[in-house]
Amino acid sequence: MADESEHAPAPASGESLLNKIAEKLHGHDSSSDSDSDSGKKDTSSSIKDKVFRLFGREKPVHSILGGGKPADVLLWRNKKISGGVLGGATAVWIFFELLEYHLLTLVCHILILLLAVLFLWANAHTFIHKAPPHIPLVQVPEEPFRQVTSALIIELNRGLAALRAIGSGRDLKTFLIVIVGTWILSIVGSWCNFLTLFYIAFVLLHTVPVLYDKYEDKIDPLAEKALIEFKKQYAVFDAKVLSKIPKGPLKGKKIA
């Protein structure tokens, strides 16, 4: 009986050791489950992050517009500067379009007024007891004009290369898009002159990007639906019309 009483606690210690091992295994399983759940959540969140964006963009609107001060102006980050630019363009359009003021006439009138004020001030300073006007030496810097000219030449060469690629007859889809776009532009040009068209484009450039940047989460789903519908209609048009148009000389025929 004494031996049994001495060896009685051993099973309890063995059971406690087994319980500890089971708890550790259970904790490891739960941690692995939580890791797998978190991994699933990460993958699901990454899938949700891949939302359709207009024109397949992956960068913010500010970066697409070039960043820096021009993008800040177009996105109205500084409302005073953006409002001043748009107000100045509106004033120019009112002067030349509504008031029918001509550019050469405006420049000549400004020069006449400026030169007359400076000339009278320079000759009448002894009578009005004021110092003669200090006319600063104005020089046009060459480097900005060189940069602008270089950028325009690069874009012009790109445009000519694109027109050459379109005229080569290799891409029928791009050819039709350019033809339709040019035709629509010609119709819009018949409604208004170049200045009004330029002003409309200027206003759109200062309103559409900021509106899209503000409501992109609502615009992108609508754009996705429109793109899907356009692809369906284009597939039907391609099957019925474009696929029946010969795309070049047959290579299998030989000249006899």
Automatic annotation (TrEMBL):
It is a multi-pass membrane protein. One of its GO terms (biological process) is response to bacterium. It is found in: Endoplasmic reticulum membrane. Its main location: endoplasmic reticulum. PROSITE patterns: RETICULON (PS50845). Residues 70-256 form the Reticulon domain. Pfam families: Reticulon. The keyword Transmembrane helix applies. This is Reticulon-like protein.
